[in-house]
Amino acid sequence: MRAVRIHQYGGIEALQVDQIDKPTINADDVLIEVKASSINPVDWKIRQGYLKDFIPYELPLTLGWDVAGVVTVVGSDVTDFKVGDEVFSRPDITRSGTFADYIAVKADEVALKSKKLDFAQAASLPLAGITAWECLVDVGNIQDGQRVLIHAGAGGVGHLAIQIAKAKGATVIATASTKNQALLVELGADQAVDYSQGTLLEQIEPVDLVVDTMGGEVQAQSWPLLKKGGMLVSVVDQPDEAIAKAHDVEGAFVFIQPSRRILEELNALVEQEQLIPFIENSFPLEKLADAHLQSQTGRTRGKIVIEVN
Ligand SMILES: NC(=O)c1ccc[n+]([C@@H]2O[C@H](COP(=O)([O-])OP(=O)(O)OC[C@H]3O[C@@H](n4cnc5c(N)ncnc54)[C@H](OP(=O)(O)O)[C@@H]3O)[C@@H](O)[C@H]2O)c1
């Protein structure tokens, strides 16, 4: 089968289309024929060696951690899937990835995909959707009527977070550059904020919850936007406890794990027509390097899909 692997950390030249054996599965795994995957910034960060001190990968490594596909083999301990099931997953990031024809995934990291989603759409949801859900719901404890600020609302995580926050009854304020203001409104934002037009403090009334997908200066500018008792949840930079305390708010950091439970929550929103991924464009597996380059610009609108089979 084909697998796009890195044999050493580095630039896009490190990506290699290899012919390798199909993965063998454990008793609690299913083997999925990959129909589609999607790009996340973690793919090129891992390629560049950014996580090598946290996760001791053995190289060569297949990248990619979103999948939508069809179950082709079921492990002997697996009772909840059968051959032919159409599924999606954000598999364990410490195992081999999804930019390949097949992947072995623990069954409890997999969910049946909604029939309302095609494979490209289903492959766009798991990693970014689980991230948005964890920030807003599991950690942020979002409540009906709250004011929620979502940074990078046009990006992979942000465009799903806007829709989830609206589904939870929040008033949503989202940030993007000038060219993405209309997209924020189409996604459901109540207030679209252009970060190039003045400071955030000038443009945003106090909020209960901030979803920080940017870190750095954006996180620094976000603390004074929170009401007392509010919360900033970051997926990029661990919030400084002393700064949070000085503003009388909480700071939290999220690093997501696979979750069938959250995939099923996302499916439910899709079924209720409250959530749909926005796909900017797609690339065939062999053109993965071009997709990495596009993602690395930091200007992605919604998701970039990788078509595999
Ligand atoms: N900890 C975790 O578990 C976890 C999980 C998922 C993601 N992440 C991280 O979260 C970050 C976001 O991921 P993603 O998939 O959403 O990235 P992405 O899709 O690449 O984000 C691109 C978006 O960022 C926007 N953007 C750039 N600078 C901005 C700014 N100053 N203010 C507001 N928006 C800005 C761009 O909009 P404009 O072009 O309009 O500026 C673009 O739409 C990445 O660093 C990723 O690695 C962490």
What does this structure look like?
With 309 residues, the chain is of the alpha/beta class. It folds into two domains: 2-124 and 278-307, Quinone Oxidoreductase, Chain A, domain 1 (Alpha-Beta Complex), CATH 3.90.180.10; 128-253, 3-Layer(aba) Sandwich (Rossmann fold), CATH 3.40.50. The protein is 27% helix and 28% strand. The chain has helices at 41-47, 119-124, 126-139, 156-167, 181-186, 200-203, 216-222, 241-246, 260-271, 288-296, and strands at residues 2-6, 15-19, 29-38, 61-62, 67-74, 86-89, 102-106, 110-112, 147-150, 171-176, 191-194, 207-212, 226-234, 250-253, 279-284, 303-307. Strands 3, 5, 6, 7, 8, 15 and 16 form a seven-stranded mixed sheet that branches. Strands 11-10-9-12-13-14 form a six-stranded parallel sheet, with helices on both faces. It has a three-stranded antiparallel sheet with strand order 2-1-4, with no helix packed on it. Helix 3 (126-139) crosses helix 4. The radius of gyration is 19 Å and the shape is globular. The N and C termini lie close together (11 Å). The model has no long low-confidence stretch (mean pLDDT 98). NADP nicotinamide-adenine-dinucleotide phosphate (NAP) binds at residues 40-42, 128, 131, 151-152, 154-158, 175-177, 180, 195, 213-214, 218, 235-236, 254-256, 295, 298-301.
